[in-house]
Design goal:
The chain is mostly beta strands. It is built from 9 helices and 51 strands. β22 and β23 form a beta hairpin.
Length: 979
C-alpha cells in the first residue's frame, strides 16, 4: 500500500509539471449556418491529446503555443487552426456536398463517393435502424432501394433473407455474399434436421449473429455487376461489405450503452371464441351426424390458447467499448451481452461477444499492420413450433389448460395440449464463433503498395433435441427421443495483392492485381437415441439414460476450395470522366474437370456532368453524374461434389462370406458431370446521381437488367446410368429488371430545429424463359396432402409463382368450385419495395421514424388450408380462422388445396421509432443520452396470419406460411454515455 501511495504521488507530480507548461483553450465548432456540431473531433496534431465537442458544439483542450488543432467531423471538410495564445477559438466547418469526398469501401480497396461508377450504397452507423438486432441485415431494412430485407420469422436469432435486385437461381440461395473487414464469410448456419413426428421446425439461425451491431461502422451494398464482379463466382446475388469500428488517435474514449425492454405479439390471429365455437359446432353437428355436446370438453372452459403459449418477453442488452490511439497506433475494444427472450415460452437467444481491432504503422508509415479478432458465445433455445403454434391455433377453446391438481392436461381437443410441449420438448444450440483477420501493407515505392490479407473463421455448434413421450397420459407422442447434432465449419483465407496509384495534372489512375486462395471445411456428427430409462435426468445432458437399442450414428465431411486471380483499374480524367474495369478468374473445386475456371469481366463508366463548363458555376446543381455499367458474375451454390461421381455402401447390395457374414456392398450414389459449371448473371445498369442546393436535396435513379443463364438443375440421369439424377446447367434464363429511386432532403435547418427525409422505392419484374420442363417446389405439409406442391418455376412467370387449382366459391351443395387443372394463381415475389425515413431534432431532443413496405405479392396461408375449414371444425373439432368461416361451405368433404388460401401479402409497417434526449451535463461525461425505441409498432395489411413478412417454405420457396413464429412488437428504454 505504501508503494502504491508513493507511485500515485509521483504520477500527480508528473501530471502537474505537464499542466503547468500548458494552457487551456475553449472553443466552439459550428457549420456554415452557425449551427453547433456535436461530436466533432479536436486533436492536437502529432499528439494523442484530443477531445470532442459537446451537444452545443463547445470544447476545451490543453495546448501550447505553436500547436495546431485539427478539427474533423464526418461529412464536413477538416479544418486546421493554429494556437497563438487566444483564449477562445471559433471553428466554422463547411459541409461536403452529399459527402462526395467520403471514401467508400468497395472490393479490395476504396474510392471517393463522387468517383463511383457502380451502383453502390453506404449506410453508416448513424443511419442504422435502432433497437434489438440479431443480424446486420435488420439494420438496413427499408433503407436502400432495390434491397428487400425479410425477417421471415420473429424467433430470436433466426436467419434474415437479404434479396438484392430479385431472385437469380432455381436451386441456389438468393442471399448475397457477406464480407467482414475484407474476409468473405462461409455463410453457413447452425440449423439441422429436427425430430421425427414433430411438425414445424424453427428457421435456420443467422450466420451473422456473432457480429455485434454496436461494433459496425458502416455497411456497403454492391448492387450492379460493375461493382460486384471483382468477387466472381459468389457475386451474382450482390455483395454486402461490413466494416467494423476502428480507433482514432487521441485520448482513450470509453463508451457504454444499455437497454432493457419487452416484446409482445403484435396481434393475435382472429379465431373463433369459445362461445362462437359452441355455436358453430352446434350448427354443423347434425350435418356430420354428431351430437353437439361431443365437441365440448368436459371442462367447458373458455380458453384463449394463444394467450397460453405467448408471453411478455424480456430483453437486456449491454455494450462497453474502449477506443483511442497514440502516435501511429490505434485500437478499439468492445464487449457485448444480449439476453433476448422469445415471445413463445422457452425460446430465446443469448450472446456474449468480444472484439479487438488494433492498427499500427512502422518504418515511417511504409509498413502498416492491422489485426481484427471477433469472438462470440451464442445460445439459442427453440421449440417444436409446429406443435406449439399450430396446436394453439387449432386447439379446442372449451378445453382447459390444467387439470384440477394443477398438472397440464394432455389433450386439447384433436391435438396434444400445446402448453405441454414446454416440458416435453427442448431444442438447445450452443455455438462458439471466431473471426480473425490480419493484414499487412507495405509501401514498396511511393504509390505502389503490397498487401497480405489473412482470414480465419470458425463456427463450432452443438445442437441437441429432446422429446419425452406422453402416450401413457393419452397423448400422441409414443417414443422418447434425443438427438445430438454437432457441426464445425472452418474458413481459411490467404490473399496477396498489389495496388499502384498515380496522379497527373489531367488524370488520376490506380491499378489492382491480386491472388486469393480460400478453403471451406464442414464436418458433422449426429447421434440419435430412443427410450429413456428415467425422466428425472434430462438426456440433453446425459445421453446414457437412453436405450442402447436403435441408436443411430452418422457423420459427414465436405471441403470446398476456391483459387482466384483478380484485377481492377480505375481512371479519373479531368475530374469529369470515370472508368472502372475489373476482371476475376475463379477456379472452384465444386465444378467439373472441364470447367474449373470461370471468368468474370466488368466495366463501369461515369460522367460528372456538373463539372462541365455549362454547369460548373451553377448555384442550383451541386452534383450530376451519369453512370453506365456492365458485367458478369457467378453463382457456385451447388452441393459439394455435385460434378463428381460418388460411391457408398448399402445393405441392399450386400453379400455374404461363408454363408454367415454379411458385408454391405458398394454402389454408385452420384453420376459425374465433368462439364458442370457456374451460373452466369449478366447485368446492365444505367444510373444518375444528382444533388441540388449544395447537396441539401439529393437522389439517385437506376435502371437495371440482369439475366442469369446456365441455371443449376438436378434432373433424371440419361440411360444408361447407375443413379437416378445428375446435376446439369440448364438452357433456361431468369431475368430481373426494374427501376430504383432514392431521395434525401435536408428540409429544415434552424438554430433549434432540423428535419430530414429520406425515401426509396423499387419496381421489379422477374421472369423465367427457356425451361424445357416445369419445376415444382414447395412440398405442402399438414393433413390432407400427399406429395402436393405450392409453387412452380415455369416459363413466362416469376420464380416460385403459386401453382394451384383456382377456387371460385361453393356450389349449392357446399362443394368447392375449382378449376380442372392447377394454374398460376399468385406471385410470391414483391413487385414493389419501399422505405421512408424521417429524422427530426428540436434542441436536445431527436426523433427518428422508419417505415417500410412491399406491394404486389401474395402469400400461401398453409396454416389456414390445413386446419381452417368447415370439415376441420366439424369432423376433427379444430378451431378455425374466423376469416375462413363460410356458412356456404359443406362440412362433409375436406377442402382441396387451391387459390382459396392465397392472400394479399402487401403491407406498410412502422418498423422503427426512436425518441432521444441528449442531456446537457458539466461532468466528466462527453455525451449522455437516454432514449425510448419501439420496433414493429404497427403493420397495415389484409393478411389474416400473424405477419405478412413470412416464409417457412425453404430456400427456393417464397411466401409460404405454415405456423410461422409471430414477429413481435418491442419497446426499449436505453442509455448511451461516453467519456
Amino acid at each position: 500500500m505504501k508503494k502504491l501511495k508513493l507511485l500515485m504521488v509521483f504520477l500527480l507530480l508528473g501530471m502537474s509539471s505537464v499542466l503547468l507548461a500548458q494552457s487551456s483553450v475553449t472553443g466552439t465548432v459550428a457549420d456554415d449556418q452557425g449551427l453547433p456540431i456535436p461530436g466533432a473531433s479536436i486533436v492536437v496534431k502529432g499528439t494523442s491529446n484530443g477531445t470532442a465537442t459537446d451537444f452545443d458544439g463547445n470544447f476545451s483542450i490543453s495546448v501550447e503555443n505553436g500547436d495546431v488543432l485539427s478539427v474533423s467531423y464526418l461529412g464536413y471538410k477538416s479544418v486546421d487552426v493554429a494556437y497563438t495564445g487566444q483564449s477562445n477559438i471559433t471553428v466554422t466547418m463547411v459541409e461536403d456536398a452529399s459527402k462526395l469526398d467520403e471514401v467508400v469501401v468497395i472490393g479490395y480497396g476504396g474510392v471517393k463517393s463522387k468517383d463511383l461508377t457502380g451502383s453502390v450504397k453506404v449506410i453508416g452507423a448513424e443511419d442504422f435502424n435502432k433497437g434489438v438486432s440479431n443480424s446486420p441485415g435488420q439494420l438496413l431494412q427499408g433503407k436502400i432501394a432495390g434491397v428487400n430485407v425479410t425477417t421471415g420469422s420473429g424467433e430470436p436469432g433466426s436467419a434474415i433473407d437479404i434479396n438484392i435486385r430479385g431472385v437469380n437461381s432455381i436451386s441456389g440461395s438468393s442471399n448475397p455474399l457477406f464480407v467482414v473487414d475484407g474476409v468473405p464469410l462461409d455463410g453457413g448456419s447452425s440449423s439441422s434436421d429436427g425430430l421425427d413426428g414433430i411438425g414445424g421446425a424453427s428457421r435456420p439461425k443467422s450466420p451473422l449473429n456473432f457480429i455485434n451491431p454496436q461494433d459496425i461502422e458502416s455497411i456497403t451494398i454492391l448492387k450492379d455487376a460493375s461493382a460486384t464482379a471483382i468477387y466472381g463466382t459468389r457475386a451474382s446475388n450482390g455483395v454486402v461489405l461490413i466494416t467494423t469500428k476502428k480507433g482514432k488517435v487521441g485520448k482513450t474514449k470509453v463508451t457504454f450503452s444499455t437497454s432493457t425492454g419487452f416484446s409482445t405479439v403484435e396481434r393475435d390471429i382472429d379465431l373463433l371464441s369459445a362461445s362462437e365455437y359452441r355455436e358453430q359446432t352446434a350448427r354443423l353437428a347434425p350435418i356430420v351426424g354428431r351430437e353437439a355436446s361431443s365437441y365440448i370438453d368436459p371442462a367447458n372452459a373458455d380458453t384463449d390458447w394463444q394467450d397460453e403459449i405467448y408471453r411478455t418477453a424480456q430483453i437486456s442488452n449491454y455494450n462497453l467499448g474502449f477506443s483511442g490511439g497514440a502516435g501511429t497506433t490505434t485500437y478499439n475494444v468492445s464487449l457485448g451481452y444480449l439476453d433476448q427472450e422469445g415471445v413463445v415460452e422457452t425460446t430465446g437467444h443469448e450472446s456474449f461477444t468480444g472484439r479487438i481491432n488494433i492498427g499500427t504503422s512502422l518504418l515511417e508509415d511504409r509498413l502498416k499492420l492491422r489485426a481484427n479478432v471477433t469472438v462470440a458465445d451464442l445460445t439459442d433455445e427453440s421449440q417444436a413450433l409446429g406443435s406449439v403454434i399450430i396446436g394453439a391455433l387449432r386447439a379446442n377453446p372449451t378445453s382447459a389448460v390444467y387439470e384440477g391438481d394443477g398438472q397440464v392436461t394432455t389433450r386439447a381437443g384433436a391435438t396434444d395440449n400445446p402448453v405441454s410441449f414446454f416440458d416435453l420438448y427442448r431444442d438447445r444450440a450452443e455455438s462458439k464463433k471466431v473471426l480473425a483477420n490480419f493484414s499487412t501493407t507495405y509501401t514498396i515505392v511511393d504509390g505502389l503498395d503490397y498487401k497480405l490479407n489473412l482470414g480465419y473463421e470458425n463456427s463450432d455448434t452443438d445442437r441437441i433435441f429432446r422429446l419425452f413421450n406422453n402416450a401413457d397420459e393419452g397423448g400422441d407422442i409414443t417414443q422418447d427421443q434425443v438427438v445430438l447434432d454437432a457441426r464445425e465449419d472452418t474458413n481459411l483465407l490467404i490473399e496477396n495483392f498489389l495496388t499502384y496509384k498515380k496522379s497527373y495534372d489531367k488524370w488520376d489512375f490506380d491499378v489492382l492485381a491480386g491472388h486469393s486462395y480460400q478453403t471451406f471445411t464442414n464436418t458433422g456428427l449426429r447421434i440419435e437415441r430412443f427410450d429413456f430409462s428415467t425422466t428425472e435426468i434430462d438426456p440433453i445432458y446425459n445421453l446414457g439414460i437412453a436405450s442402447q437399442d436403435n441408436t443411430t450414428v452418422s457423420s459427414d465431411n465436405s471441403e470446398r476450395k476456391l483459387q482466384s486471380f483478380f484485377g481492377r483499374a480505375n481512371a479519373n480524367i479531368l475530374d469529369k470522366y470515370l472508368i472502372t474495369a475489373s476482371f476475376r478468374a475463379d477456379a472452384s473445386s465444386v465444378f467439373g474437370d472441364n470447367n474449373k475456371y470461370g471468368y468474370f469481366p466488368a466495366v463501369g463508366l461515369g460522367w460528372k456532368i456538373n463539372e462541365e463548363a455549362f454547369l460548373q458555376d451553377s448555384d442550383v446543381i451541386s452534383n450530376l453524374k451519369l453512370r453506365l455499367g456492365w458485367g458478369q458474375t457467378g453463382n457456385q451454390a451447388v452441393p459439394v461434389g455435385a460434378a463428381q461421381s460418388s460411391v457408398g455402401t448399402s445393405f441392399d447390395d450386400s453379400f455374404t462370406f461363408d454363408g454367415t457374414t454379411v458385408v454391405n456392398g458398394v454402389n454408385t450414389t452420384r453420376t459425374a458431370n465433368p462439364d458442370l459449371k457456374w451460373e452466369v448473371t449478366e447485368q446492365y445498369n444505367v444510373g444518375i446521381d444528382w444533388g441540388i442546393l449544395n447537396g441539401k436535396v439529393s437522389g439517385t435513379f437506376d435502371y437495371f437488367n440482369k439475366t442469369t443463364t446456365d441455371l443449376f438443375l438436378e434432373v433424371s440421369a440419361p440411360v444408361p446410368a447407375l443413379t437416378n439424377s445428375i446435376f446439369i446447367n440448364s438452357d433456361a434464363e431468369i431475368t430481373n429488371k426494374g427501376f430504383e429511386f432514392a431521395l434525401n432532403v435536408n428540409a429544415v435547418r434552424t438554430d433549434n430545429f432540423s428535419l430530414d427525409f429520406s425515401g426509396n422505392i423499387s419496381f421489379l419484374d422477374n421472369n423465367i424463359e427457356g425451361l424445357e420442363t416445369d419445376i415444382f417446389v414447395g412440398e405442402i405439409t399438414g393433413p390432407g396432402t400427399s406429395g402436393e406442391t405450392s409453387s412452380i418455376f415455369t416459363n413466362g412467370e416469376s420464380a416460385g409463382a403459386f401453382y394451384l387449382r383456382r377456387f371460385d366459391g361453393f356450389d349449392a351443395e357446399g362443394l368447392e368450385i375449382l378449376s380442372d387443372e392447377p394454374e398460376v394463381v399468385g406471385d410470391a415475389l414483391p413487385g414493389t419495395i419501399y422505405g421512408l425515413n424521417i429524422n427530426a431534432a428540436y434542441k436536445n431532443f431527436d426523433l427518428a421514424l422508419g417505415f417500410n413496405g412491399v406491394g404486389d405479392l401474395d402469400i400461401f396461408n398453409n396454416t389456414a388450408r390445413a386446419y381452417s375449414s368447415a370439415a376441420s371444425l366439424s369432423q376433427n373439432g379444430n378451431n378455425i380462422f374466423r376469416e375462413y368461416l363460410d356458412v356456404n361451405e359443406g362440412p362433409l368433404i375436406a377442402p382441396v388445396t387451391s387459390s382459396r388460401y392465397i392472400e394479399d401479402g402487401s403491407f406498410f409497417r412502422l418498423n422503427n421509432a426512436t425518441l432521444g434526449w441528449n442531456i446537457e451535463n458539466k461532468t466528466f461525461l462527453d455525451t449522455l443520452r437516454v432514449y425510448i425505441t419501439g420496433q414493429n409498432l404497427f403493420v397495415i395489411t389484409d393478411y389474416t396470419g400473424y405477419d405478412p413478412e413470412i416464409n417457412t417454405g425453404g430456400e427456393n420457396v417464397y411466401g409460404v406460411d405454415f405456423g410461422g413464429y409471430p414477429r413481435p412488437t418491442t419497446f426499449l428504454l436505453g442509455l448511451d454515455l461516453s467519456f
